[in-house]
Design a protein that fits this description.
single chain; 324 residues; two-stranded antiparallel sheet; alpha+beta
Length: 324
C-alpha cells in the first residue's frame, strides 16, 4: 500500500484492483539496494509560510484556506511516496473473508519484507499466518528476487530512461490529482484532535455537485466522502477516513465497488523527515469482471522503518554487505 495523495488515488480503485492483487502471491522483495540507486530523503519544509492559515473574526478558516491547506498536505504526501523508497520496512496484512451476512469465513495473514532493487520497491513474503515460510516457499521467493536482480542489472540505458520518465510522469499526475481532489469537495473544519500524540486539524469533505473532472480517475471523486486529519505542525496528512457513498463501476465489465466500502489510513512521522503509513483498515464488497465477488475486511500494518545506507551493495542472493 502506498502513501496519501497517492494513497487517495489508490483508494478510488483499491477495492477493484488491490483485492485482485491480494488474491495472488505477493511480489518478491529485494535483498539490497543498488550501488548508485539510493536517493537521500530531504528534511521536511514548513509550508506554513506558503499557506495563509489566519482565521477570520469567528475563528474559522475559509473554504479557500482549507482547499489550500489540503493541497499543501497532499502535495507533501506525493513527495512522501518518493521518500518511502529510502526505507526498508515490514508490512503485515490481515484479510478476513466474509459471507453474505458479514460473518467471517476465513482469515489470511501474510507478512512481507519491503525493500528496493535498483529503484523499484518490491516485497518478499516472509511469513504466512505469522509462521515462517517452509523451505519450498522460501526458495520460490528467493528465485523471484534473483529474477528481479538479474533484470535490473542487465537493464539497458534506454529502458532505464523510459522507466524514469514514466515515474516522473506519475509524480506529475499525482500533483495534478491533488488539485482535482481539492476542487471536488466542499471542506468543513470540524475542530482539532490528537493523532499519535500530535495535534491535528479535522476536516470533512463532501463532494460538490458542480465538480467537473479533468482527469480520468477524477470522475470517481464524487462517489466518496471523507474526513482528513492534518498535522498542525508539519501540515502532513496524519489520517484519512474515506467511504464510498454510491456504487462505482470501473469499465463495462472490469469491476464494481459497492456502496459503503470504507478505508482508513494512518501515517506517522519517521526520523523527523518523512511521514509514512502506520496502519490501513478497510471493509470492501466488490465484484471483479462480473465473475469473482469479494466481501472482505482487514488491516495492513507497517513497522520497523529503516533507512538505507548508501554503502550497501548487491553481493548475492539474499546477502547485504555494508562498508564501515
Amino acid at each position: 500500500m502506498k502513501s496519501c495523495a497517492a494513497i487517495f488515488a489508490v483508494c478510488l480503485l483499491i477495492c477493484c484492483t488491490a483485492l485482485a492483487q491480494n488474491s495472488s502471491p505477493g511480489s518478491p522483495a529485494s535483498a539490497v539496494e543498488s550501488k548508485d540507486g539510493i536517493s537521500t530523503a530531504t528534511q521536511l519544509t514548513t509550508p506554513a509560510e506558503h499557506v495563509d492559515l489566519t482565521p477570520d473574526a469567528t475563528g474559522k478558516l475559509s473554504q479557500e484556506q482549507m482547499q489550500n491547506l489540503f493541497r499543501a498536505a497532499a502535495e507533501k504526501d506525493v513527495e512522501n511516496e518518493k521518500r518511502q523508497r529510502d526505507y526498508t520496512y515490514i508490512e503485515r496484512e490481515v484479510q478476513n473473508n466474509l459471507d453474505g451476512n458479514g460473518n467471517n469465513k476465513s482469515t489470511e495473514i501474510k507478512t512481507y519484507e519491503i525493500l528496493e532493487i535498483y529503484g523499484e520497491q518490491v516485497q518478499r513474503l516472509i511469513e504466512k499466518d505469522d509462521k515462517a515460510l517452509n523451505s519450498k516457499d522460501a526458495a520460490k521467493e528467493e528465485e523471484k528476487i534473483q529474477k528481479i536482480i538479474d533484470k535490473r542489472k542487465n537493464e539497458s540505458e534506454e529502458a532505464r530512461k523510459k522507466r524514469q520518465e514514466k515515474e516522473a510522469k506519475e509524480r506529475e499526475d499525482g500533483f495534478k490529482f491533488v488539485h482535482e481532489i481539492a476542487d471536488a469537495y466542499d471542506f468543513k473544519l470540524v475542530g482539532t484532535e490528537q493523532v499519535n500524540d500530535r495535534e491535528a486539524w479535522v476536516i470533512d469533505g463532501e463532494p460538490r455537485s458542480d465538480f467537473v473532472p479533468h482527469m480520468k480517475q477524477s470522475k470517481f471523486l464524487t462517489k466518496f466522502r471523507g474526513r482528513v486529519w492534518i498535522d498542525k505542525s508539519d501540515l502532513q496528512l496524519a489520517k484519512m477516513d474515506i467511504t464510498a457513498i454510491d456504487n462505482i463501476s470501473v469499465g463495462l465489465f472490469l469491476a464494481r465497488l459497492h456502496k459503503g466500502a470504507r478505508i482508513t489510513i494512518e501515517q506517522v512521522r519517521v526520523n523527523d523527515e518523512v511521514w509514512l503509513p502506520r496502519r490501513v483498515t478497510y471493509k470492501v464488497e466488490a465484484r471483479i469482471a462480473l465473475l469473482k465477488g469479494f466481501n472482505v475486511d482487514g488491516e495492513q500494518t507497517y513497522r520497523d522503518y529503516k533507512k538505507f545506507r548508501t554503502s550497501s551493495r548487491i553481493i548475492g542472493m539474499g546477502e547485504i554487505q555494508e562498508s564501515k
